[in-house]
Amino acid sequence: MTRFRYLRTRLTVLYAGLFGLTLMLVALAVYMAITASARGVVRGELTASGAVYGQLWDSRSDQLRQGASVLAQDYGFREAVATNDEPTVRSALDNLRGRQKVEGALILGTDGYATSAGVSLDDAAIDTLWTGLNDATLSAGVLSIEGQPYQAVAAPVMAPVLIGWVVFLERLDQAQMRRLEELSAIPLSASVLTRQTTAWHDMAGPASALSGVVDRALDASGTPVGARAAEGETMVLARPLPSFGAEAPAVLTLSYPMARALKPFEPMFWALGVIALIGMALLMAGTWLLSRGLSRPITALDEAVQRLQAGEDAQVEVTSSDEIGRLAQSFNAMAGDIRDRQARLTHMALHDQETGLPNRLWLEREAAVTPSACVLMFGVDRFAVVRNAIGFEAMGQLVSALASRLSTAAGGVRVARVSVGAVAIVLEIENDAEALSLAERLCAVADQPVKLIGATVDASLTAGLDRVGRPSGRVDSLVDRAGIALDQARDARRKAALFDAVAYGDPGANLSLISDLITALESDQVWMAYQPKFDLRDNAITGVEGLMRWNHPKRGFIAPDLFIGMAEETGQIRALTEWGVRRVIADQKALAEAGHALQMSVNISGRLLSDEAFAQFALDAVAEAGGDICFEITETAVIDNPEVALGIIDRFAAAGIKVSIDDYGSGLSSLAYLKRIAADELKIDKAFVLSLDDSAKDALLVKSTIDLAHSLGMSVTAEGVETGTALALLRGMGCDTAQGYFIAKALPMAGLIERLSKPALMETKAA
Predict the structure, then answer these.
(1) Residue 419 and residue 529 in one domain
(2) Total tally of structural domains belonging to the chain
(3) Residue 27 burial by CB count (10 A; 0-12/13-18/19+): exposed, middle or buried?
(4) CB 3.0-4.6 Å disulfide test: which of 1, 309, 545, 629 passes with 601?
(5) 740-756 burial string, b = 16+ CB within 10 Å, else e?
(6) Rounded Cα distance, 543 and 658, in Å
(7) Residues 494 and 533 grouped into a single domain
(8) Of 295, 329, 350, which residue is a domain's last?
(9) Quick check: is 30 in a domain?
């Protein structure tokens, strides 16, 4: 189906097509009506002409028959015929032929001999005529003489018996047919056809085109029928004529072309065509003008919609009060609503809803168009503590007040809120020192009490910043780098810090390690190293701590703190710890088979102390192995969910699993939880042991911790023993076990077995 691009074109084509179709239907109806009327007239004229021609034929036949009868009754003529007086007979025939105005006359004897005047008959014609007359079946009819039709009329000659016939012949030629045609009211065509073999032939002229319709016309019993001829549709009437010779019947045909009948109407047809063309042109012009008037406001609406779609202001002029005018008014109202809504959405997209300050998206756009951009991000220190103290609503007011201070101090620049507890500005700065100095100065300006409604709040800020042109590492966003710098400043306990790409590293690459970790556990990339624990009373290795190691096939050695910490954050720590428990149990069995029965310790993540499924796994695994296993945990791991954690620890202790409190003193150690933990061992963090030989305070803390543990019924292991002096001091303080590089580094299983086979080496170090 044709698609129109413009409405006016579619309307013009539609209405012009409908009008044209209507005109065509009207013209067709008129033509058919006129044709039907003309066909009826022609039929009537042909029927009437056929009747007239029949009467003329009969009248002429009677006239010729009377003339022949007069001659046949003449005594002298009968005497001449009886005596075969041919000159007298011929003279009489010529005389009567002239009076009757016929072409030929003849006397046909009963013996078949003929004397003719005006026309010569061939033997075939004489035989045909004699047969018809002798049988007394016909006295008048059509006779074919040398291929030409003649009207033949005969009268008998009696003397007193039949001695012959007087026959008059009138040729049915073209001239005769024309005289018949002139008698009709319409200029029809007349012809006499005779059947020869299977077809009808016109002996008066070439009109054989009607041969195919003669039989059908004869079957119509005097009613004209239609036929296709050279001139188009033709109406034909056929009347049978009496004929001498049954093998050659004759028929009179009257025909009239419909084109000739419709010719008088041609001017009217032309007039209708011209009127139709003029009407079509006027309609197309009027429709074009009307549709253009209708489509102009629609086109304006279409263009306005496209502008609206492109985000531009779109209003159309209202020029009417009809449906299109009301549509334009509605569109203008809708466009206005969309413009207002878009403005609100744009404002919402670029501003913080709580404070009305620009947001992170606005800051990123501003940084993208600022030459030598430097983003300074300021975070509210102790944000969660302050918010919990003053409430969410007051916290929003505090952030707004701090942003106002920063804006004023920075020369009126706009301040954006990039997170709940951080704001940022964009400045054009090309020097690191200048940027750091400005950040510290702005922090100092903001570090003043802020008066809120009903309260005064002490607030301080820490700044992180970065500028275009500095090393960005794998962090593309300048705003992101400023945020990371803020975290780096807080970690370093500095007031302001520039982004350090080296310190930040590649967290994305580290994250990919997690997907490799499960494969590593299955392919022996992760293995267990064991660091000996030296008993200071027995001067012997009585236990080992299992420490996980990972040799990545592409990245080499992966620090345990990195992959274990990431496993805890991503939920893979359970699978990793279960592998560690199974590995330690298997290695303990291997050591026993090698003749070394030792207690083996494995670190348990604090996140698993609330995991009932892991606890059951650990209990089942240790119970099945039946070995001396120790689980090392931190006392801070109990703080998050103390009831569940303490319950699981109690179940470990009841099952005979030793429990060791690891890294004691490194965090916020709680004596309240320490006394509740069913622990067998307390391990002093290496941070105190490393400086034991030159720090009296550390020595005092270590001594008091040893005494505290002993008073609670726990043995004490000191980590990080790297010198003989430290080992001697610990022995003097009553420490039970030592662990560190001075004793031995963490060893693979084969190295551990080798070391255990040389007890003299350990005794030498202990001495």
Answers:
(1) no
(2) 4
(3) middle
(4) 545
(5) bebbbebbebeebbebb
(6) 12
(7) no
(8) 350
(9) no
Out of 334-338, 519-523, 695-699, least confident range:
334-338
Distance CA 402, CA 630 (A): 53
Using alpha carbons only, give the angle 274, 278, 283 rounded to the nearest 5 degrees: 145
Decide if 528 contacts 548 (C-beta within 8 A). yes
Burial classification of residue 154, based on how many CB atoms lie within 10 Å of its CB (0-12 exposed, 13-18 middle, 19 or more buried): buried
Which CATH number does the domain housing residue 496 bear? Answer: 3.30.70.270
Per the CB < 8 A criterion, the answer to whether 477 and 391 are in contact is: no
492 and 514 fall within a common domain: no
Residue 702 and residue 683 share a domain? yes
Residue 288 domain-assigned (yes or no) = no
Please choose, from the candidates 95, 101, 123, 116, the residue with its C-alpha nearest in 3D space to the C-alpha of residue 165: 116
Distance in angstroms (rounded) separating the CA atoms of residues 466 and 599: 52
Residue 407 is part of which domain span?
360-505
383-390 vs 392-409: helix crossing angle, rounded to 10: 120
Structure tokens at 523: 């392919």
| Residue 498 shares a structural domain with residue 555 | no
CA 128 to each of CA 95, 150, 164, 241: distance values in angstroms, whole numbers, following the listed order:
26, 13, 15, 16
Whether residue 767 is contained in a domain is answered as no
CA-to-CA distance for 533 and 744, rounded, in angstroms? Answer: 9
Helix (H) or strand (E) holding 456: strand 455-457
DSSP per-residue string spanning 479-538: HHHHHHHHHHHHHTT-SEEE--HHHH--HHHHHHHHHHHHHHHHTT-EEEEEEEEEETTT
Beta strands in 559-707 (DSSP E): 599-603, 629-634, 658-664, 681-684
Asked, for residue 11, whether it belongs to a domain, the answer is no
Report the CATH number at residue 598.
3.20.20.450
Whole-angstrom Cα distance, residue 603 to residue 746? 14
The burial of 190, by beta-carbon neighbours within 10 Å (0-12 exposed, 13-18 middle, 19 or more buried), is given as buried
For residue 203, give Cα distances in angstroms to 52, 169, 252, 738: 22, 16, 11, 149
- End residue of a domain, out of 272, 306, 337: 272
Rounded to a whole number of angstroms, the distance between the first and last alpha carbons of the chain is 105
Q: What would the pLDDT profile of 660-681 be if each residue is shown by its tens digit?
A: 998 887 654 567 778 888 899 9
Is 246 found in the same domain as 222? yes
Q: What percent of the chain has pLDDT over 90?
A: 29
**pLDDT per residue as tens digits for the range 489-526:** 998 889 999 998 888 877 776 677 778 888 888 888 89
Residues 546 and 434 in one domain: no
- Length in residues, the chain: 767
- Indicate whether 620 and 679 sit together in one domain: yes
| Beta partners for residue 140, in sequence order | 153
CA distance 234 to 254: 10
Chain-centre distance for alpha carbon 101: 97
